[in-house]
Amino acid sequence: xxxxxxxxxxxxxxxxxxxxxxxxxxxxxxxxxxxxxxxxxxxxxxxxxxxxxxxxxxxxxxxxxxxxxxxxxxxxxxxxxxxxxxxxxxxxxxxxxxxxxxxxxxxxxxxxxxxxxxxxxxxxxxxxxxxxxxxxxxxxxxxxxxxxxxxxxxxxxxxxxxxxxxxxxxxxxxxxxxxxxxxxxxxxxxxxxxxxxxxxxxxxxxxxxxxxxxxxxxxxxxxxxxxxxxxxxxxxxxxxxxxxxxxxxxxxxxxxxxxxxxxxxxxxxxxxxxxxxxxxxxxxxxxxxxxxxxxxxxxxxxxxxxxxxxxxxxxxxxxxxxxxxxxxxxxxxxxxxxxxxxxxxxxxxxxxxxxxxxxxxxxxxxxxxxxxxxxxxxxxxxxxxxxxxxxxxxxxxxxxxxxxxxxxxxxxxxxxxxxxxxxxxxxxxxxxxxxxxxxxxxxxxxxxxxxxxxxxxxxxxxxxxxxxxxxxxxxxxxxxxxxxxxxxxxxxxxxxxxxxxxxxxx
Length: 506
Description:
Blueprint: E1 11-17, E2 21-27, E3 33-40, E4 52-53, H1 55-72, E5 80-87, E6 92-96, E7 106-107, H2 115-123, H3 131-134, H4 143-153, H5 157-162, E8 166-170, H6 171-179, E9 189-191, H7 192-195, H8 210-216, E10 225-227, E11 230-235, E12 245-251, H9 252-259, E13 268-272, E14 276-283, E15 294-299, E16 307-314, H10 318-326, H11 336-341, E17 351-353, E18 371-373, H12 381-407, E19 414-417, H13 424-434, E20 438-441, H14 446-459, H15 465-471, E21 474-478, H16 484-499
Parallel strand pairs: 1-5, 5-12, 9-10, 13-19, 19-20
Antiparallel strand pairs: 1-2, 2-3, 4-7, 6-8, 11-12, 13-14, 14-16, 15-16, 17-18, 20-21
Helix pairs in contact: 9-14, 10-12, 12-13
C-alpha cells in the first residue's frame, strides 16, 4: 500500500462519468455522502442505431462538477485522500496526444454501427470465436470494433495512429490522461475491468492479445497500459483538486459490485440504470459461461490476484422509462411511472420487449427489435406503464436464471442499486418474479462509492476490505408474495414475447 501525501484528509472523492451525466461525489470514512454535484451531457443520435457523446463536453462537465462539489462544502485539495474514477464502459474515445482533441465523437456502448463487421467475423468463426480468451461473444457492444471503425472511417486517423500520435481508451483513460496533465505528460492507462470490455485483452494474462489486435487491425501504440483497479496512477493538475492522487479506476458495473462489498464468491448485485447489469463475484477463477453471460474482471486490488465475475448485461431498462416519457409523452417525469402503473392491478395481458438495439444477455441477438405484444382494446396507458416496469424485472430474472446455472450457486437474495431502486412497485415485482428477497443498501450511490473505496484502499484511507464490509447496511428488503402459478404464467408469456422480437432487422 502506498500512502498519499494527505494522511490527515477526512474525505475521498469519486468521479462517476455515466452514460447520461457526470458526477463528483465526496464521501467520508463511513461511506456517507458529504458533497455531490451532477451535470448532464448531450446524447447525439446521428443515425438510427448510432449513439455518440462529445468527449470535450464530458471533460468540461467533469471539471465543473468537481469544482462545484468542492466549493459547495468549502473543501481544499488537502481534504481529499485520493480520487477514484468510474465510467460508462465500452464507450470509445480516440484522441490526439499532441492536441488533446478527440478525432471523432465518443462512440457509446449502445451504438450498433459495427453490426456488419460483427456479422462478418461471426461468419468466419462463430459468435464465440474470442470467448475463450476474452470472455465475450462477438457483439456491437464492446470497444475493440468501435476503435477499429474510427481508425478506418475518420480521414487520416489510421495514418496518425501508425505515426504514434493517437491514443485510445474507454472514458476512464481519457479522464485520467486529462486529469494528470493531458498534453503536458498525462498518464495513459486503464484498469483491468475496463480493459476486459474492449474484447482485446486476454482474461488470464491481463495483457492485450496480439492475435486479436492483428485480426482487428489495431496498432498496439494506441492502447493504454493496463493497471490494477486500486493504485496511485498519478496526481491531479486541476486547481480544485491539485496534487490529489488519482488512485482508483473501475468500470461502472464493477465499481457497483465493489461498492456493494460483494467480496465473497457467489455474492451478486444488480444495478438498475440506463440498462441493467448483474454481476456475481466468482473469486480468482474466470468461469466460462454456457448460458449467455459475459466473463469479466471484477476488480484487482494493487498486487493482489485479480477477482473475476460473471455478468448479465441488459441493454434497455431505465431508458425504456425515458422512451415512454420523451418519445411517447405518456408521462412527464420518469418518477410518474409508478403512480401511473398503480392505476391498474396488472399488465392487462401486454408485454414490452425493449430490444431497441438488439438483445444482450442471455440472447446476444443484434437483429432483435422492440415489440409490444398482447394488445387488445382493453389496454390503457396504465397497463403500458406497468409492462414497462415489468420488462425490467423479467429481463433480470432471465439473467439470474443463467447465473445460477453457470455458477452452480443459488442466490440467497439480490442486492440492488441504481436509479430505479426507489420504485417500490418494481422492487416488489422483482422479488415476486424471482421468488427471492430483494435488498437495497443504505448508500444507493454504490457505483461512485466503489470507485472511492478502490482509491481509499490505495491511499491507506481505509485499512482493508473488512472495513468496507462493515460500512454496508441494509435500507429496505422486499419479500416475494406471488403465488407460484401466477409467477409461472407471467414468465411463460414473457418468454413467448421475447421470441417475437427475434430476427426483425435484416
